[in-house]
């Protein structure tokens, strides 16, 4: 139940299942990878949007929590993004706009998931 995926950019990513499902629990589950990829996609966007606006952003972390359906297919039903954006003199409205633009225009992953999943987000700003 362990698999290695080779991406279009020639990188390898390992995925595995839980021991009770025949895996060895050595790597993330495929659905965890989906969440991680979506978080990475939107974090990239937020930083790039802030940088293009010449804002002094030095970091962005995003934590995702998700709920899944109880029965098969156990699709995501809700995903919440919590952003921690670090920088100097970042204004709330600027960070909020960057996050909104990511979720509504730029992040292909969250836009795709948003077609079938309730997505919410909040953020905090950490002064650098």
UniProtKB/TrEMBL annotation:
InterPro entries: KH_dom-like_a/b, OsmC/Ohr_fam, OsmC/Ohrsf. Pfam families: OsmC. It comes from the Bacteria. This is Putative redox protein. It comes from Rhodocyclus tenuis. The lineage of its organism: Bacteria, Pseudomonadati, Pseudomonadota, Betaproteobacteria, Rhodocyclales.
């Amino acid at each position: 139940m362990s698999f290695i995926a080779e991406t279009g950019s020639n990188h390898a990513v390992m995925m595995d299942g839980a021991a009770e499902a025949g895996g060895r629990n050595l790597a993330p589950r495929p659905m965890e990878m989906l969440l991680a990829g979506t978080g990475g996609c939107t974090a990239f966007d937020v930083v790039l949007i802030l940088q293009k606006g010449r804002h002094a952003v030095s970091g962005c972390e995003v934590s995702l929590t998700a709920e899944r359906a109880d029965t098969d297919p156990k699709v995501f039903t809700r995903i919440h993004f919590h952003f921690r954006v670090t920088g100097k003199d970042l204004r709330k409205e600027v960070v909020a706009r960057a996050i909104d633009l990511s979720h509504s225009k730029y992040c292909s992953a969250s836009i795709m998931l948003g077609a079938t999943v309730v997505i919410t987000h909040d953020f905090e700003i950490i002064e650098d």
